[in-house]
Amino acid sequence: MTKTMIKGVLKTWKEDRGFGFIVPDGGGKDIFIHISALKxxxxxxxxxxxxxxxxxxxxRGKYKAVxxxxxxxxxxxxxxxxxPANNTVKVVAxxxxxxxxxxxxxxxxxx
Length: 111
Hints:
Layout: E1 6-14, E2 19-24, E3 31-34, E4 50-57, E5 63-70, H1 87-109
Antiparallel strand pairs: 1-2, 1-4, 2-3, 4-5
């Protein structure tokens, strides 16, 4: 994986399929980019955008862009969603607590 960011121009973009190809500034083969490499961008890419990216080799031996962003386009931080509360567990815990309290009260009232 290339740790440094590379800059290139988005040569083609197929909006209906969510991918395109970048021409690297330094020349060389076009690099595949999927929409998933552009996480958090405030808009979809368009042909001609300047893209900053890293390159990895996928499991088929092909190179692709990852950790990419569009030059001059705001990155929106993804908000982590809190885990949904498991209400069933809470209700059972409350009921068990109430039952224990009632049992203790009954025991001390009628020894």
